[in-house]
Amino acid sequence: MSSVGACLDKAVVEHFFGSLKHEWLLKMVHLTRESMKLDVEEYIRYYNHERLHTRLGDLTPISYEKLQGKVSGWTRALMFYIRLLSVP
Q1: Angular region, 58: left φ>0, alpha ψ -120 to 50, beta rest
Q2: What is the pLDDT along the chain (88 residues), one digit of tens a residue?
Q3: Within a 10 A sphere around the Cβ of 57, how many other Cβ atoms?
Q4: Rounded to whole angstroms, how far apart are CA atoms 10 and 56?
Q5: Which DSSP string corresponds to 36-75?
Q6: All residues at 6 or more sequence positions from 16 whose CB lies less than 8 Å from its CB, including other chains
Q7: Which of 74, 77, 73, 54 lies closest to 64 in space, CA to CA?
Q8: What is the pLDDT of residue 44?
Q9: 53 forms bridges with which residues in the sheet?
Q10: How many whole angstroms separate alpha carbon 60 and alpha carbon 51?
């Protein structure tokens, strides 16, 4: 975080939540809180592993980080969490 009033601090997060809302949640019907939670988790997987980002040269964020040779600790934690969710 930088100084108070620096709008670029939240730009990445705001962009992600805008995409989540307009590309995913508004197109789905959620009857329960659990179904919405599962949908958000699915979107995070899609956003990081499948969705191509033009700012990253039409790569996924995970592919871009691997190409750069720097996978952040947050990305490792998210990948670990996703693996835990996929275990039956």
Answers
A1: left
A2: 456 666 666 777 888 888 888 888 788 787 888 888 888 888 888 888 888 888 888 888 888 888 877 655 666 666 666 666 665 5
A3: 10
A4: 19
A5: HHHHHHHHHHHHHHT--BGGGTSB-HHHHHHHHT---HHH
A6: 47
A7: 54
A8: 87
A9: 59
A10: 6
